[in-house]
Amino acid sequence: MRAIVLSAPGPVENLEIRELPLPDVGPGQVRIRVEAFGINRSELHLRLGYAEGAKLPVVPGIEAVGVVDAAPDGDLEPGQQVAALMGGMGRAFDGGYAEYTVVPRGQVIPFRSGLSWATLGSIPETLQTAYGSVTIGLDLRAGQTLLIRGGTSALGYATAALARDLGATVLATTRQPGRLAELAAHGVDHPILDDGAVAGRVREITGDGVDAALELVGTPTLPDTLAATRVHGTVCFAGMLSNQWTVPDFYPIGYLPSGVRLTSYSGDADALPPAVLQGFLNRVAAGTLSLGPVSVYPFDRIRDAHRDIELNRISGKGVVVVR
Fold this sequence. Notes:
It holds the Pfam family ADH_N. The protein is α/β, with parallel strands linked by helices. It has ten helices and 15 strands.
């Protein structure tokens, strides 16, 4: 099979397409014939050397969609459509950047859909994080206001869709003026141009600040996001588009506004129930939910995909179609 291998951290040239043996599959595992996989920020972090516990060389990829090729346990039939995500994929063991991948059964979610593989490839990890951020990290409710810091990311668009569907009012930021219209077109009630300090604008719109905020940019904007949130509101840290995720010399009393709660979210495959995935796919197919823009790349252009994401050239999700 063909696979994309990362042997050492570094530039996109370190992603090499190689011929590898078809991986063996044993009890408790599933071998998947990969049809598409999403490109995620964590894979950029892996390539740049920011991933703890990664075993190199490795086939990257924390998610993939395709069909079951072999499943010794017998509960999944060959040809069944499946998504695989998280659980050490692409770091502790070879992941989705390949024509075939072998993963633990617990990381596999079956589904049925007539959507294109390019569309399907954009959904699993993004939906898992958006759904978990909304339900666990923020406990968002109908009628509340939500600020998404980093709104034109794949996770930003997905969270906006879920929040609007729930009945929340959505504010979302972008650093690029040309993307404000994209946010509005994808259901954001109040697109905001991010100059690094948006708390004042957010409070002009909401009065006392938002009920909830999802921080996807990282620690550089976190203090301003906290300042945009009302007393007893919640900020959930779930992304690091800036590639900065630590706060030096953290002093809670000086850092956190009084009464504003700071949480985080990071989930696994079991945080995305099959019924939630299937229901979301059905809604996308029916045209009642949108994930935002998807940029599609062939397998041979993996370096272009990584380069575009690293340089913030695309809005939404990057997906590689394997065949």
